[in-house]
Amino acid sequence: MKYIASLALFSLILAACSFKAKQKSSNKEKEQISTFFIAPYKVDCMGIAPMKCLLVRKSDTEQWENFYSSIKGFDFIPGNQYQLKVRIIRKENAPADASSFNYELIEIISKETYAPHSRSLFDIWGVVDVKGDNPLHSDCEQTLEINMTENIIMGKGGCNNFRGKIELISGTNQIKFTKVLSSRRTCANQTLEDKYLQALNSVDAYFRFNQHLYLISEDEVIIKCKRMD
């Protein structure tokens, strides 16, 4: 009788251990650990409503992608690029219009002030947004050519051409456009042209990602450009 009771107790212990092991395995399947690289500025994006998104990638060779969720425990400071260790937890019964995952900060692996090489600016850019206005929606072509060999900018404000000087602070992403002068024809889209040239004069930093260039004033993106083929 004692033997049978002991056997039954042993079977119960085995069953309990097996259940715990399966539970641990199930929990592991619901979560994973990943490394996130975080870009130095948020960008405008569209979730359920317009919002600001982090730009995230999982390696140096990947393209930046909009990140529509938040990372619990992570306080983002503009102008810094981060490498994070993040716990990704699958939600149960997540709403159809929400993320299927929760994200939690485990560790900040690195935090560095964004300091790109100035050669990343050297290109011809088409302007796609100036403080919320897309000039292309009004058939107004605006461009920006940046020549780092001569430290000059030139381009088209709408119907007038402009030209100016570049001032950079080495080892940072700080930039200023000075002595920006344009021709004086009256344009059909004069308001858009004036807005663009005024915005250029207030730029104090930049950020290039993928095929885009963002020009920044006081940590806010004020001009968005896309590389012209």
TrEMBL record:
InterPro entries: DUF306_Meta_HslJ, DUF4377, HslJ-like_sf. Residues 124-220 form the DUF306 domain. Residues 38-111 form the DUF4377 domain. The keyword Disulfide bond does not apply. Pfam families: DUF4377, META. Keywords: Signal. Residues 1-21 form the signal peptide. This is DUF4377 domain-containing protein.
